[in-house]
Specification:
By secondary structure, this protein is α+β, with helices and mostly antiparallel strands. The protein has helices at about 10-15, 30-40, 45-55, 60-85, 95-105, 135-150, 180-195; strands at about 20, 25, 110-115, 120-130, 155-160, 165-170. The protein is globular, with a radius of gyration of 19 Å. α2 (about 30-40) packs across α4 and α5 (about 95-105) packs across α6. The chain has one domain (about 10-205): Jann2411-like fold. The strands form three sheets. A two-stranded antiparallel ribbon has the order 1-2.
């Protein structure tokens, strides 16, 4: 089954990479191959980079990176569930040290390259050095940082579907979105509740570790006003 991208926020789509869309729980990051497939579907890593790691990684290496991705996911899920539904404040930064340690491992640089097809001439492009399979975690970290600094956490909600664990950003004008999607939960939820709804976070359906500890520390800043995330990586 293709991965679910219904959150309207890439950082939340990462949290939704484990779900129970019908009756059977699915984890799209269950192993190394699953991680590569999900990163490709999410358009976070170029196809040629995924193929290189698929062909060159040592046995078990990608599975270990997938395990780190799951640890990162469940640690960040705890943060999001604790803070969703209200704006982030600066004090939340104290909880984000594990993410900052991941971000500071990134190696991004800018190069001058050809412009896009829609334009002529040259353009400034950001390039990442993909040194090892562990670098596959770096664009995920950047996506989480952009969620923290670019999304209003007051708009982050949990689907009201029974047993649904999916999260989303409510960007509707009236801020009245209730479901991850009508197809997955909305139609059945309305039928079973008579529009009353069954509000819940679905925590029991998602299990995982509550810690993620990459190495090192950083010193720059990413931020847009809600909360700053210290790191060297640029948006």
């Amino acid at each position: 089954m293709p991965a679910l991208f219904v959150a309207d926020a890439p950082g939340l789509d990462f949290l939704n990479s484990v779900a129970t869309p019908v009756d059977t729980p699915l984890d799209w990051l269950a192993d190394g191959e699953g991680l590569l497939n999900w990163l490709g579907q999410a358009a976070l890593v170029p196809h040629e980079v995924l193929e290189r790691f698929r062909n060159e990684a040592m046995p078990g290496e990608l599975d270990r990176v997938a395990a780190q991705a799951r640890d990162l996911r469940e640690w960040f899920r705890g943060f999001v569930r604790a803070h969703k539904g209200r704006p982030l404040i600066a004090e939340a930064l104290a909880e984000l040290a594990p993410l900052n340690r991941l971000l500071e491992r990134d190696e991004l640089h800018e190069v001058v390259g050809p412009a896009t097809e829609a334009a002529h001439g040259l353009s400034l492009q950001t390039v990442r050095r993909w040194k090892s399979p562990e670098s596959l975690l770096l664009p995920i970290g950047g996506t989480l940082a952009r969620l923290l600094t670019g999304e209003d956490f007051a708009s982050v909600k949990a689907c009201e579907g029974p047993n649904c664990t999916l999260l989303f950003a409510d960007h509707t004008r009236a801020r009245n979105r209730r479901w991850c999607s009508m197809e997955l939960c909305g139609n059945s939820g309305r039928a079973s509740t008579g529009e009353a709804g069954s509000v819940g976070d679905g925590d029991a359906a998602v299990s995982g570790v509550a810690s993620f500890q990459p190495v090192q520390q950083g010193d720059g800043v990413i931020g847009n006003g809600n909360v700053a995330v210290a790191a060297r990586v640029h948006q």
